[in-house]
């Protein structure tokens, strides 16, 4: 008997050293040959998304069958004073990737943020709700969405939020470090959102990409923006309590308001995203944020 000769797709993963990118290296592996790219060393290719020649060279040389872009300018507060570079990476680069992939119909999965919204709703945001970013980072990410969609590429944009995980710079790891160092911590309680485990987001990405590669969906119909976060909602204060609860440390947590913790970039007060569309389109159900947190903590402890 002869085995079927199906070509293994080349999956280009940009931003393979970020917190989501690191998880994607693992979750994309069963779908094909993962070719990694990053601005740092330690990946197959070096790319600087702020440099258009570097981006087009990457696509030319890797000849991918699909692209996942997990790279971004993510320093939310710094972006307030570094608008030009944030725009190049978050807005220009996705538009350019779209333009480079459009003619071949190669699918691209890209990430955006809850920060595209103003946070003045009281019900979870749906994909077509009006946007209104409060800070430069959110504005550049929104522009990136627009440019990628306008390019006409087969793009799926996953808007996510409050990412944490075993690697990178995130709230969970910061809290765990500070619980050990401090007797008392003041945490914002008037910002509400949905903690999202980087591993879970990477798994969802792979499920979506699998459907795009298998070709059982009409790509023209399914391309667009989707919300993907942990299900449910909480505040930073209650998120910190849930992390602390698992540790048995003696740190006292005090709830404060955003005005007591001023930061250069304004954040939305209510940033809960409605995950219904990804379920209806791709059959992907998002687990409750507490369930994912437990699984992540089990791995860390
Ligand atoms: N983190 C969150 O809570 C959150 C929330 C909503 C949406 N998102 C979105 O989710 C996606 C993944 O975020 P993440 O948390 O995994 O981000 P991350 O950990 O900051 O990773 C982003 C990666 O992009 C790389 N990068 C930065 N500038 C680059 C450039 N000019 N060229 C190439 N690579 C560059 C970074 O490298 P260096 O580290 O060397 O700079 C880093 O490895 C992003 O699109 C982000 O906007 C994140």
TrEMBL record:
<protein>
    <recommendedName>
        <fullName>dTDP-4-dehydrorhamnose reductase</fullName>
        <ecNumber>1.1.1.133</ecNumber>
    </recommendedName>
</protein>
<dbReference type="GO" id="GO:0019305">
    <property type="term" value="P:dTDP-rhamnose biosynthetic process"/>
</dbReference>
<dbReference type="InterPro" id="IPR005913">
    <property type="entry name" value="dTDP_dehydrorham_reduct"/>
</dbReference>
<dbReference type="Pfam" id="PF04321">
    <property type="entry name" value="RmlD_sub_bind"/>
</dbReference>
<comment type="similarity">
    <text>Belongs to the dTDP-4-dehydrorhamnose reductase family.</text>
</comment>
<comment type="function">
    <text>Catalyzes the reduction of dTDP-6-deoxy-L-lyxo-4-hexulose to yield dTDP-L-rhamnose.</text>
</comment>
<dbReference type="GO" id="GO:0009243">
    <property type="term" value="P:O antigen biosynthetic process"/>
</dbReference>
<keyword id="KW-0521">NADP</keyword>
<dbReference type="InterPro" id="IPR036291">
    <property type="entry name" value="NAD(P)-bd_dom_sf"/>
</dbReference>
<keyword id="KW-0560">Oxidoreductase</keyword>
<feature type="domain" description="RmlD-like substrate binding">
    <location>
        <begin position="10"/>
        <end position="300"/>
    </location>
</feature>
<comment type="pathway">
    <text>Carbohydrate biosynthesis; dTDP-L-rhamnose biosynthesis.</text>
</comment>
<dbReference type="GO" id="GO:0008831">
    <property type="term" value="F:dTDP-4-dehydrorhamnose reductase activity"/>
</dbReference>
<dbReference type="GO" id="GO:0005829">
    <property type="term" value="C:cytosol"/>
</dbReference>
<dbReference type="InterPro" id="IPR029903">
    <property type="entry name" value="RmlD-like-bd"/>
</dbReference>
